[in-house]
Specification:
This protein is mainly β. It has two helices and 43 strands.
Length: 402
């Protein structure tokens, strides 16, 4: 059974689990804490971590910790003691709040604020890392023009990263706009150091930043989230560019049941190099002009051959629906989507590739002058578009798609 050591104030506390007593290691902020059997004072979280071994749990007493915590021991869990708040505060002087460089590390309900760069960093190919139920705010104090100065930055992390149920807000106590540099969540992977995918990003609430959830390298088949990743049930609002950016190889990547509002675009899918990529049951509302000045629910383009499935998504916003941002299109299968916009529901400078299929979507544009632009040709009604292209044989042009 895992051995977990704990000492608080001047007492050794033992927890009985079954027939074994497990000492648990506590770290306190305002008072000296002893390590069982050593009499070693731990006045910081980082000092306690330096003594931790695989399987240890460090329980942190409520308080504010002015430090950068480096989790470089595998299999360690960092969690609060009791229900009080624990804050790691960078004072806008330390670059990061928590750095994770070893595998099988879990951080739960430890909050981070006021970092000059990213609040939490996962790097050095650390695998099976869990970051959950954290409150992260006021990151990128320095306003670096860098998307990786994020709430959570996974910079060449390994496979199986889980980011679950975190609250990430770019500005709370610091002055400044919510829309600005630094993503809410940012991933970096490429063919030189592929992560291996298998990530799960779910239940996060992200306010502000550049992209809500984004990554690099966009034009690399092993970029961003790499492969076999699920991004689901997140709420993203008031970001400067893309709500969720899914660009790269996108091999068996699922993006579903997310809500995006107040961003410049809902989803960036340019490019989808290999696929298949599944974008399903998402809701996009209230897009606003952002960093690049335009608004679109789905950005496509930049080549690739990956098949993208757009299924049962809802869009209710000013701007365009599906819009080509750069030359080169990968195939799209679109069905069951409801797009209500004031611009083009579909705007491409070239036709979609032959493998594409637009089947039973419901389209509506408030504009009488703009409906579909397809390969540079304009169509004012769905009937005209269907007749010219053969697409949307079961599609509808209705303001109320219900």
């Amino acid at each position: 059974m895992t051995n977990v050591r704990t000492v608080i104030r001047w007492q050794i506390l033992l927890l009985a689990i079954g027939m074994m007593a497990l000492p648990v290691l506590f770290c306190g902020g305002d008072y000296t804490v002893l390590r069982a059997g050593h009499g070693q004072p731990f006045k910081t979280i980082d000092e306690a971590v330096s003594f931790a071994r695989s399987g240890d749990t460090i329980l942190v007493a409520p308080g504010v910790y002015a430090e950068e915590v480096v989790l470089n021991a595998p299999g360690v869990t960092l969690a609060p003691l009791g229900r009080g708040d624990v804050w790691v505060d960078g004072g806008c002087q330390r670059e990061n709040g928590i750095r994770i460089s070893e595998s099988k590390v879990t951080v739960r309900r430890i909050n981070v604020r006021n970092t000059s760069g990213a609040a939490v960093v996962i790097h050095d190919m650390a695998t099976n890392v869990k970051v959950r139920e954290m409150t992260i705010q006021d990151y990128n104090c320095a306003e670096n023009d860098d998307q990786s100065a994020a709430g959570i930055a996974v910079r060449y992390g390994g496979s199986g990263i889980q980011l679950l149920d975190n609250q990430i807000t770019r500005r709370v106590d610091l002055p400044g706009e919510q829309r600005g540099y630094g993503d809410g969540i940012w991933f970096k992977s490429d063919s030189s150091l592929p992560s291996g995918g298998g990530h799960h990003i779910a239940g996060n609430v992200i306010v502000g930043g550049f992209d809500g959830i984004g990554g690099e390298s966009e034009s690399d088949a092993r970029g961003s989230f790499d492969k076999d990743t699920v991004i689901e049930g997140n709420q993203v609002r008031d970001c400067w560019d893309d709500g969720i950016q899914v660009e790269g190889g996108n091999v068996r990547v699922y993006v579903r049941d997310n809500t995006i509002s107040g961003c410049a675009s809902g989803f960036a899918l340019a490019p989808n190099l290999i696929g298949p990529l599944y974008v399903e049951r998402n809701w996009i509302t209230d897009l606003v002009p952002g960093y690049h000045g335009d608004r679109a629910a789905f950005k496509v383009g930049r080549g690739g051959r990956g098949l993208t499935y757009l299924r049962d998504n809802r869009v209710d916003s000013d701007g365009d629906g599906i819009k080509q941002s750069d030359p080169g299109l990968s195939p799209v299968v679109s069905s069951g989507n409801e797009l209500r916009v004031d611009g083009f529901v579909l705007a491409t400078s070239e036709p979609l590739p032959a493998a594409s299929l637009l089947l039973n979507d419901c389209f509506w544009s408030v504009s009488k002058d703009r409906f579909v632009k397809w390969g540079g040709e304009y169509y004012s009604t769905l009937a005209h578009f269907r007749e010219a292209t053969g697409f949307e044989s079961q599609g509808r042009q209705l303001e109320d798609c219900r």
